Recover the amino acids of this structure.
């Protein structure tokens, strides 16, 4: 398993989890019989928890055609501005609306031998709360967006990881204690703890089709899974 770099949120979560067993080392080196050194045992603690996404990124596009590139661009700009204003009226900050792409492409006749016009596509990425994602889609479509490219849900990194790390540490502790007991020993300290990986598996809602005109579009964020794995080296002895 490849070791990963621990981010600030993960480091804090791991530190909190490590506090569960830090008391084992509070007295310095574990007390052993004269001439006896503690043994080492390495275990991997794992934990996964489900969390409900709190943030959504809604990606919508405005498409328009014109006989000239400028005419198509002008029409598209007007529609895109209406979409931005409609979303802002929901309380979405302007800083949470970003241009995801702007394309101008020629449109050819059926034979592909002559340019008959131009098509402009302007994609907007709107970041809002998961609860408001449906309203954002409705507002954007009503204002002129004619394509919904996708909706992705995310959760703040530190929401689930602190709990996951505590559970992973408890899992590692349980394994180490079982191993020590089978040898007639006990866990007397912790030598090291390291994070092996972190992984968030979201459950995104995707709709790559022309948006429907139905009001109050139901969008369910579902849940995502946050998983962690840690490597812990324990000291075991009498």
């Amino acid at each position: 398993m490849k070791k990963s770099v621990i981010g600030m949120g993960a480091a804090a979560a791991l530190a909190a989890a490590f506090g569960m067993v830090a008391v084992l080392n509070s007295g310095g080196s574990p007390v052993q019989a004269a001439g006896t050194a503690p043994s080492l045992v390495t275990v991997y603690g794992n934990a996964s928890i489900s969390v409900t996404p709190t943030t959504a990124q809604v990606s919508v596009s405005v498409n328009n055609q014109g006989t000239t590139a400028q005419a198509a661009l002008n029409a598209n700009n007007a529609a895109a501005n209406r979409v931005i204003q409609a979303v802002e009226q929901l309380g979405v900050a302007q800083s949470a609306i970003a241009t995801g792409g702007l394309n101008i492409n020629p449109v050819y006749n059926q034979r592909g031998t002559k340019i008959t016009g131009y098509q402009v596509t302007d994609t907007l990425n709107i970041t809002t709360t998961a609860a408001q994602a449906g309203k954002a889609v409705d507002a954007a479509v009503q204002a002129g967006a004619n394509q919904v490219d996708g909706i992705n849900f995310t959760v703040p990194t530190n929401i689930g990881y602190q709990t996951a790390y505590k559970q992973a540490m408890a899992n590692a502790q349980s394994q180490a204690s079982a191993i020590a007991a089978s040898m007639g020993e006990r866990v007397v300290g912790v030598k090291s703890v390291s994070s092996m990986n972190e992984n968030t598996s979201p459950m995104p809602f995707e709709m790559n089709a022309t948006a429907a005109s139905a009001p109050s579009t139901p969008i369910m964020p579902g849940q995502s899974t946050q998983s962690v794995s840690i490597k812990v080296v324990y000291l075991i002895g009498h």
